[in-house]
Specification:
Elements: E1 3-6, E2 12-15, E3 22-24, H1 51-60, E4 64-67, E5 91-93, E6 98-100, H2 106-115, E7 119-124, H3 131-142, H4 148-155, E8 166-169, H5 184-201, E9 206-209, H6 222-231, E10 237-244, H7 251-255, H8 258-278, E11 286-294, H9 299-303, H10 321-336, E12 341-346, E13 356-358, E14 364-366, H11 370-379, E15 383-385, E16 388-390, E17 393-394, E18 402-403, E19 405-412, E20 417-424, E21 431-436, E22 445-451, E23 477-480, E24 483-488, E25 492-498
Parallel strand pairs: 1-21, 3-4, 3-12, 4-7, 7-8, 8-9, 9-10, 10-11, 11-12
Antiparallel strand pairs: 1-16, 2-15, 5-6, 13-14, 15-19, 17-18, 19-20, 20-25, 21-24, 22-25, 23-24
The structure holds alpha-L-arabinofuranose (AHR).
Alpha-L-arabinofuranose (AHR) binds near residues 69, 70, 71 and 291.
Enzyme class: hydrolase
InterPro entries: Alpha-L-AF_C, ASD1_cat, GH, Glyco_hydro_b
Catalytic activity: Hydrolysis of terminal non-reducing alpha-L-arabinofuranoside residues in alpha-L-arabinosides
Amino acid sequence: NKASMIVDKDFRVGEVDKRIYGSFIEHLGRAVYGGIYEPDHPGADEQGFRSDVLELVKGLDVPIVRYPGGNFVSGYNWEDGVGPKELRPRKLDLAWRTVEPNWVGLNEFMDWCKKANTEAMMAVNLGTRGPDEARNLLEYANHPAGSYWSDLRASHGYAKPHAIKTWCLGNEMDGPWQMGSKTAYEYGRIANEAAKVMRWTDPTIELVACGSSSIQMATYPEWEATVLEQAYENVDYLSLHQYYGNRDGDTANFLAQSVGMDSFIHTVISVCDYIQAKKRGKKKIHLSFDEWNVWFHSNEQDSKLEPWTIAPPQLEDIYNHEDALLVGCMLISLLKRADRVKMACMAQLVNVIAPIMTENGGAAWKQTIYYPYMHASVFGRGTVLVPLVKSPKYDSKDFTDVPYLESVAVYNEQLGEVTVFAVNRHLDEELPFEIDLRSFEQSRVIEHIVLESDDLKAVNTAKEPNRVKPHVGGNAAQTDAGKIEATLPKASWNVIRVK
Ligand code: AHR
């Protein structure tokens, strides 16, 4: 029972677009208020942003953050969030049954992005609104000066345009839970018309159309085909969303779910290529996997919350060790299709199904899932090499032939480094792993980072923030020119760095 992987620097999947390590801040729960922004917190900066949270975000090296939703955006009037704060209205958010005070809006979020060394992926409301508001928002955000909306921005203290490059055309418009949900044809039409006027306003932008809300939607994958039939010419990316849970307490099956993510990605690429062929098009549509994560722990607690309060503790999943393993597998799934998946957002970033948790007025700490996300974002830049993997396999409730080993290698040509990411899905046994780096004969192991735990359900909390954290005690070592051997502990996430 041994696993192996062969990689060669001449066999490449594609360049990693750093935006696959994106994340998401929605006006939902304590993501904004109590998360990134808390003016009364002892560590708040002059604008009210929490500096402890900023430090943790910077540690992830997040290149892009989707904003302001999510379901929230489908009922959002962006104008409520700009201008003098004392004049901003309190509005009901029907998506999450809360009150939105509008203390943070577009301009504050752009300031936060600068402080966090990241850029924004902005979503427009195609639920209760449409192309007119979308073009106005874009004019406000990106037009240099000399028009109503750009001059209004300047009068709000932001003379320089924000130059936001990436825009989402609505959110999950296939879902009946969405304000203003639509059929695929209705959405495809409005997405195309919004895309046209947005491009005419600023031809430098890139646009993401909504794909299915999950692989379980009855309209998947016909939705993708119909939307692209209408909007192919004017959009650049199609979105994918997927969340997983371990509701039955069946960990082997839970960890196998990224195999479903692989086939989701494969199918959406196929649909994009089918429409390209049908249209005799030159342009490839790329994928933006702009919501992905584990989400289920908080479902029951959320059903008991009182409606119509400001920033209640919604979607506050507390992640355990096995969740970090699935997150690692999902990151590997994204990397394996680096040729077509050009953006992805872990949903979300702070407090709401997030790698970072805070207490109001108190501590901020790293959840278990912070670590695989950080490792991939920091070490997974460069070129993905084709992974020829052999692994023993298992069958679970919903999946057959699930490899115990999930692995991929990224070659950073500039640094002359190769990083191998690997998950051992086996819950009881370690896995011997041989890596054949035949075109890197001179290379030596720099470090072998391991995330493991004696308890799959172990979590990090404010009181015990370091219960689950990685160590550099893995045993990967070079055995021969270009050959590395390692033992992957049972149920572990591994980062093997070679130079
Ligand atoms: O990320 C939480 C929610 O999940 C988002 O608002 C929505 O787009 C999805 O259903």
